[in-house]
Structure formats: C-alpha cells, structure tokens
C-alpha cells in the first residue's frame, strides 16, 4: 500500500478530467467525441486504486483522490451508454406529420416544444411520443450505476457522493414547503408547465443573444471577475428570462472553477461532484430576483421589476421543485427500474402537477449523476445570498468588500459536504424569497 503515489494519481486524474470535460461537452452538443478521454488514465480508474486509497488512513489527500477515482471510473464504465444516449437524443431521427412533415431528432422536437417556434404544444406532444429508446438507455445507466457501487463494496453511489446523509428528507420537505406559493390549477399540461417554467419577458429589455459579453457586462463596474479565466461552457439559447438565470448560474460555476486554489492538489482544489460550483451558481443565478440588480442593469420601473420578479419567482419555484424531484427520483432509480417506473406518475403529479405517459419517465426530466449537489447547492446558495445581503446590503454585487469576500471564499478548498442546518436555513430563505416574489 505504501507504494501508491497519491500525488501521481492526483496528477493523472487532473489530465483525465480535462479530457472528460471536452468529451461531455461534445456529447451534450450531439457530436461524436474525437477520442476516449479515459484510455490514457486506465491505470488509475478502477477498483484496485480505489481500494488502495481506502487503506491509506494517514494520507491527507487520499479521501479526495478516492472520490475522483470513483467518479471518473463510473464515467469510464458507462461511457458506452453515454454515447448511446447522446445518439438517441441528438442524431436518431423520428418521422412526424404534424405540426410539420419531416424527420426530427428528439432534441429538436423538445427544442421546438420550448416555444421557440409556432405551436410548441404540438411539438412537445410529438417529442413525448418518441421517448422509449432514450428511456431504455437511461434505465440501463442507473442500473449499472448501482451495480458498480456494489462492485466497489458501497451500498449505493450515495455512500460516497451524497453531500449529506439525509438529503432525501430535505427534498421531501422542500416539495411540501413550496406547495402553497404555486398559484396554478391542480393538474396542468406539460406545455403549460414549460410555459410557466420559462417565464414571461414582461417589460424588461432582455439582450437578444446570450453570449459571454452579456454576462460579463453585468459585473463590469466591479472587480468580481477581474483577471479570471472563465469557462462557462456553451451558454443556453436566449429563449426566455430563465435562460439568463441558467446562464448566470453557469457563470457562477465558472467563477468557482477559476478561483480554485492553485497551490493545492487537483483533488483537493476541485470536488468530484461540484457542490461548491453549484452553490456559487445559485448565488449568481439568484441575482435576477434581486430588485436592485434588475433596476441597475435593466433600468426598469418599479412595476416592471415587480412583474419580472413574479415571473422569475414562479420559474425558480418550479425549477427548485424539479430539482427536489430529481433527488427523490434518483433514490427510486437506484432501487431498480420497477421501483422507478411504479413511482413515476405519483411523483410527477405531486411535484409538477402534470400527468405524463410512463414512457417519458427519465426522459422529460432527465436525471443527472450530480443531482444531489444541484439541489443542495441551490439551498446553500440561497443562504449565502442572504448573508451577503445582510452584510453588504441589497446591492452587494457591486460592493468591493462583498467582492473580496466572494473571491477569497472561492479560493479556499471546496467543501464536499453540506451542513444539514445550513440546508434548512437555505430552504427557509429560498421559500421566503419565492413567496415574496410571486405573491
């Protein structure tokens, strides 16, 4: 065991992760990746290295390195299904007769269903008819993830990756607590859910295109992003107000990455599942519910800001409930396809107020391997935003002391775990923020 060089493993993991990021982005864009990012690093991606790291009780970086070994090993083992899923979504075509005669990928049908063109409800209806093959790949992926955990002597992937032991309880509580502010009918159509989730542009003049310069201009009068090599990846299309919230969240994650401590080993400076990235993403994304931020950057009237906050608050409410739903669905998916499918209808009606065909389970609201961090990061980000406001006023985003605080905190090694009390505080803050916006 003493022969294992954890720093050498850490350096190899850094190289693998850099290749993996490009690989994932290619898959998400529907492209065939140029090469396999895992083959050069096979010597560190497996049970042998994982077990050896577990035996190094006195090595301070071994636990963090072990987390990365597992994360990238899982991605390597399931890379064939990741490629298959990308193909099913972005390259396989389906023949339809309406609302337009032609052949379209599932991703294209879903994109048209997001109100990009005419008759979004018809496009969405067609998308929901062509989900069986994608669903089968998704179900296989989650079965494999549980099988891999068993081979690594873990009860489930959560035994290593979960940000806290009782996150499922936090998700259940959030679904219950966020029920009252949602002012909509008992059952709505999938198209109506998407319409509410996207938000109404209202009277604000949103930039026509979502490009990095638009996001950087929001912070041009501060040094928050000064001299940082930011890489938010591909930004979402400017479909609706929530597109800008998502883009700001990506900027926040990129801010976290760019500030990561350079004097620490890779596995210490970067969390394998990215809890801190999600927390910073939430801090940035929630700025669009900050009335002072909207006033300064959109020059809007008080009434226009009130309308914008109401629409964005509803969008955030739905997004947060879906984030909780994904956490709860993850538990069912890891229990097997039978448990996942049997609980699908009840979960979606309760959380999203939509009735969906069983064939859409795992497709219409896809699960991600870091959904626990996405949900926990939202709650932690809400708590952090509240603290920034309490310490530096509502316009904290342009306060030099707040900027220094954010940059200093981001330069520390990230926390891998979420404090349950802080999650509860974040849920309380987020609930009050949403209720104050939508009521």
Could you characterize what this model shows?
The structure is a single chain. With 439 residues, the chain is mostly helical. It has 2 domains: 154 residues, no CATH class; 272 residues, no CATH class. 62% of the residues lie in helices and 2% in strands. The chain is built from 20 helices and 2 strands. The chain has a two-stranded antiparallel ribbon. Helix 12 packs across helix 14, helix 14 packs across helix 18 and helix 16 runs antiparallel to helix 17. It is globular, with a radius of gyration of 22 Å. It starts with 5 loop residues before the first helix and ends with a helix. The model has no long low-confidence stretch (mean pLDDT 95).
Task: Give the overall shape.
Answer: globular
List the uncertain runs: none
- Binned, the helix content reads 55-70%
Number of helices: 20
Number of domains: 2
Compute the separation of the termini in Å. Answer: 60 Å
User: What is the N-to-C order of secondary-structure elements (H for helix, E for strand)?
Assistant: HHHHEEHHHHHHHHHHHHHHHH
- What is the chains' assembly state? single chain
Radius of gyration: 22 Å
Largest sheet: 2 strands, antiparallel
Amount of beta strand: under 5%
Number of strands: 2
What keyword list fits this structure?
two-stranded antiparallel ribbon, single chain, 2 domains, 439 residues, globular, mainly alpha
Helices and strands, with pairings:
Elements (H helix, E strand, L loop, with lengths): L5 H23 L18 H8 L7 H16 L1 H12 L2 E4 L5 E4 H11 L3 H9 L3 H20 L6 H4 L5 H11 L12 H9 L13 H6 L23 H19 L6 H4 L5 H11 L5 H8 L3 H33 L2 H16 L18 H22 L7 H11 L9 H19 L1
Antiparallel strand pairs: 1-2
Helix pairs in contact: 1-3, 2-3, 4-7, 5-6, 9-16, 9-20, 10-16, 12-14, 14-18, 16-17, 16-18, 16-20, 18-20
């Amino acid at each position: 065991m003493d022969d294992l060089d954890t720093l050498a493993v850490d350096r190899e993991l850094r190289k693998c992760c850099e290749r993996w990021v490009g690989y994932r982005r290619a898959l998400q864009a529907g492209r065939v990746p140029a090469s396999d990012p895992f083959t050069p690093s096979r010597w560190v991606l497996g049970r042998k290295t994982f077990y050896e790291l577990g035996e190094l009780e006195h090595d301070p970086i071994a636990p963090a390195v072990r987390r990365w070994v597992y994360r990238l090993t899982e991605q390597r083992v399931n890379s064939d299904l990741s490629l298959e899923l990308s193909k099913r979504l972005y390259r396989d075509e389906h023949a339809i007769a309406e609302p337009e005669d032609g052949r379209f990928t599932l991703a294209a049908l879903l994109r048209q269903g997001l109100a990009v063109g005419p008759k979004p409800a018809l496009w969405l209806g067609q998308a929901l008819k062509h989900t069986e093959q994608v669903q089968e790949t998704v179900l296989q992926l989650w079965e494999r993830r549980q099988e891999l955990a068993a081979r690594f002597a873990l009860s489930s992937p959560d035994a290593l990756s979960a940000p806290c032991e009782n996150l499922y309880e936090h998700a259940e509580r959030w679904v219950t607590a966020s029920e009252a502010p949602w002012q909509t009918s008992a059952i709505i159509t999938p198209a109506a859910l998407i319409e509410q989730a996207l938000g109404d542009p209202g009277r604000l003049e949103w930039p026509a295109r979502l490009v990095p310069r638009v996001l950087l201009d929001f912070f041009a009068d501060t040094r928050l992003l000064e001299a940082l090599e930011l890489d938010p990846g591909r930004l979402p299309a400017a479909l609706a107000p929530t597109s800008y919230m998502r883009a700001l969240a990506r900027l926040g994650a990129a801010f976290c990455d760019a500030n990561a401590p350079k004097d620490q080993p890779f596995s210490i400076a970067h969390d394998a599942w990215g809890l801190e990235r999600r927390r910073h993403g939430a801090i940035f994304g929630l700025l669009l519910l900050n009335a002072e931020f909207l006033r300064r950057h959109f020059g809007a009237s008080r009434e226009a800001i009130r309308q914008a906050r109401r629409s964005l608050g509803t969008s955030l409410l739905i997004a947060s409930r879906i984030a909780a739903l994904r956490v709860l669905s993850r538990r069912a998916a890891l229990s097997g396809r039978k448990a996942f499918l049997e609980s699908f209808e009840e979960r979606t009606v309760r959380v999203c107020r939509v009735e969906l065909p069983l064939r859409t389970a795992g497709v219409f609201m896809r699960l991600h391997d870091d959904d626990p961090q996405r949900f926990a990061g939202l709650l932690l980000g809400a708590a952090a935003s509240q603290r920034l406001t309490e310490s530096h006023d509502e316009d904290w985003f342009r306060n030099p002391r707040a900027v220094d605080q954010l940059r200093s905190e981001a330069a520390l090694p990230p926390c891998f775990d979420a404090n349950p009390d802080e999650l509860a505080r974040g849920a309380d803050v987020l609930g009050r923020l949403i209720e104050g916006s939508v009521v």
